[in-house]
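agent> step 3/5: call structure_predict on target 'Tetratricopeptide repeat protein' (Macrococcus equipercicus).
agent> reason: downstream docking stage needs a structural representation; sequence fetched in step 2, passing through unchanged.
tool.input:
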Amino acid sequence: MDINTTIDQAFEAFHEGDEKEAERLFATLKNNVKPEDEDYTQYLSALGYFYTLKLNLEKAKEVYQRLLEGAESAEDKYAAIHELGIVSRMDSEFEAAKDYFAQEAAIISTDFADDDLLKSVNRYELGYVYMQEGKYTEAVQILKEALQLAEKAGDALGIGSIHRALGELNAAQDNQNEAKEHFKLAKKNFKNAGEEMSVQEIEMLESIIFED
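tool.output (status=ok):
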């Protein structure tokens, strides 16, 4: 079987609202892809993401932990730890998330020291954890570090995401002018990245936050 095609079909079914078909396709993958197969890591990565989309976060963590335990390269270890950090943040396990992102930063420092994009994503995720905790001073500092790195990397999508986070953060503190400026820059960068859906999401957010 073509694992890439099956994974694509599963996510397409899920996004079209046919969760049962998506689950059937992942069950097919489970029966056909074995731990010794070269595609097994790819299958687990997709399965972890599928559980994350379903907000079955405990299952997602189990899958990503299996990925981490089987990781043979720094890249695979980084990827598993990154996802464990995201899922922990989504599950409001903030201390665990911060620990995972600290582990991720250590791997980046050792094995990907010149990769500003990876550094930026790491700082963005960590800053988002602090923002969700309500620790705004720390969040602003870390997100600004992420922004500098994203700008160095020329990552329009990352720049847009960081400005959106800074906009949300300033809105939460009732700094409306600063929030509007960050949302404006977020939309500009999302447009440059071809992310029209993200632009629409910000416009909807603005209509809620800044309603008269």
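agent> step 4/5: record observation. The domain at 1-96 is CATH 1.25.40.10 (Serine Threonine Protein Phosphatase 5, Tetratricopeptide repeat).
agent> proceeding.
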